[in-house]
Amino acid sequence: GFLFTKVMGDFSRYDGQLQFIISEGPKFTASSITIEGLEQLRLDRALLDLDLVATGTITQPMIDAQISKLMKTGHYSHVESEIVIDDHFQELNDRVTGRIIFHVKESKEREIRFSLGASQAGTFGELAYSMNHFGSFGARLSVFASLSKELQKVGIIFQDPHVGGSDWQGKYITQYEQRENEYEDSARLRFK
């Protein structure tokens, strides 16, 4: 899992043996970690999605886990990493320092859903619009409406994965429902 691991193989034609020599190479410590390629999302908000810190030994599986974590946010359509060895590189105590740069391409994902149908109870329809990348701080916004003979509903869902720049996740849902002659307004706020 070390970043500078080298594997060399040697095959002997005389006795048919294959020998591998594995050198772990120097261990890597990050002097800084950053994200490049952001167009909408602010850097301080994007860095909140990483849990990699610039201390201790960093391995390739740790970097791969961060790429996976960034992709799961839905904010990016592509993520790759780059290691840039510091200019003042000196291999001291079997350690190398450098910068980790995550190059990203932001997702422009928006979704419009429309459905129309009929049953014995009558016709029904639904319309929804979602933005997985709303604003410079990485929020999600969904607006929806559905209409049938028995139920009319409209609502808004707003999600912030880092409320106030913290590790708290917030979700606000407000909706209006009408069933026959019954009306209901509701609003919910949830933090995790």
How far the N terminus sits from the C terminus, by CA atoms, comes to 33 Å
Q: Give the C-alpha Rg.
A: 26 Å
Shape: elongated
State the oligomer: single chain
Q: Tell me the number of helical segments per DSSP (H or I, 4 or more residues long).
A: 2
Account of the protein in words:
The chain has 192 residues and is mainly β. It is built from two helices and eleven strands. It has helices at residues 43-47, 60-72, and strands spanning 6-11, 18-23, 27-36, 76-85, 95-106, 110-119, 122-134, 139-148, 151-160, 170-179, 182-191. It has a six-stranded antiparallel sheet with strand order 6-7-8-9-10-11, with no helix packed on it. β7 and β8 form a beta hairpin. The longest helix has 13 residues, at 60-72. The relative contact order is 0.14. The model has no long low-confidence stretch (mean pLDDT 84).
SSE map:
Blueprint: E1 6-11, E2 18-23, E3 27-36, H1 43-47, H2 60-72, E4 76-85, E5 95-106, E6 110-119, E7 122-134, E8 139-148, E9 151-160, E10 170-179, E11 182-191
Parallel strand pairs: 3-5
Antiparallel strand pairs: 1-2, 4-5, 6-7, 7-8, 8-9, 9-10, 10-11
Short description:
The chain contains 2 helices and 11 strands.
